[in-house]
Amino acid sequence: MLALLVLLLAPPWGVRHDPIFAGDPTPGTVALTPGELAAVGWLHFAGQPGPDGHQCTVTLLTARVALTAGHCFAAGVDGFEVSVGPDGTAPLATAAVVDAALHPHDDVALVLLDQPLDAALPAFSPLPLAITPPEGLLGHTLTAVGYGHQGDGVAAGRRFADLNVGCVEPAFLLLDSPRQALCKGDSGGPLLMLDPVLQRPAVVAIEVGGNRDCPDLADTPEAIEVWLATQKDWMLRVDRVRLWIEAEAARLEGRGLGALCGGLSERGRCDGEILRWCAGVLPLERDCRLEGATCGATATGPDCVPPALCAADEGVTCEGAILRRCRGGRVETVDCAAAGQTCTPGVSDCVPVCYARSVAEAVPVATGGARFRGGCAAAGGGAALGWGWALLAFSLRRRRRRARPGRPPRG
Fold this sequence. Notes:
The chain is of the alpha+beta class and 411 residues long. It has 4 domains: 3-239, Thrombin, subunit H; 257-305, no CATH class; 312-360, no CATH class; 363-403. The chain contains 5 helices and 27 strands. A 6-stranded antiparallel barrel has the order 3-4-5-8-7-6. Strand 13 (190-195) and strand 14 form a beta hairpin. The longest helix is centred in the C-terminal third of the chain and has 23 residues, at 381-403. Mean pLDDT is 74; it is low at 1-21, 150-155, 363-394 and 407-411.
């Protein structure tokens, strides 16, 4: 089985290096883009990116600010570097730690790098802090990420574990799994959820503690099964320290909160139907189209605006092939052209183009019906239909002539 060695230390356990058990090389429950994968890295001694120098896992909140666990700096903050990439011995990019902020009470820290890492990572996409509170996550499966090495000392690089939320506490989430678990060595690594508000993966907690006695890869399957059944992994909720994280990240970079977001303000702006705003230190966005809404101005600033209310008797309007109708009290817009159809005034659904043409070409007849030129017939059907109406009209004319009083029938 795969194993990932990480440093996971939180009171009352001590510092030890052990493997995270049965880690996977690719994400599981929470899918990540290549740019989001590049936002998870590892903290190590300067010049020692391999297993001997590995200390903790970090999450890049910006190109220069990384989030990790506070106990990773029990011996001080000097002499560290942060590297990124899937291979724990061959970093794609490395930067030196030049400053750090440690929370006075909680096991969380931020580090400032001497240079931004996004220059070497074209697809780099920082991971945001979750906005959705974790109270509703009980029983859900989330994805943890960490670095380390195999039990035999061979570097394994970045690994993932899908863990179940077994308990939600005011400060922690307690996780377990019948197949995987975290051990010392993964401290500071992110626990990821798909945030329904942000509509993307986000950090809901960081790894800070676990069972002191992690199994060895050489242990019997029975011993490993017993250990997994009793293992609990402790994750510090980021919503508990969110304000501190945002303020310290801004202080470390020596800029205002909005400046960290590339000029975006907390109020935000609309770029087409994309709503973009700054949440603390992170630039965030929402695609309003996914909510059936449009991005527009509101009393509190730009936001995703739901369709306007309407009355069922407002009827149907057409703007070319765009149909607008009232459904469930909301104005609904349908692009008929996307289905190869078109919009006809007064008809509440998209219709075939040939039907719309027939309606447009309808002419009255003596019986009060409608005569259509062409219609939806196959090739040649329009001419046949025209001859049929001509014969019918000729027959009616002859009958009328025979029915006129005082006129003898022709011989």
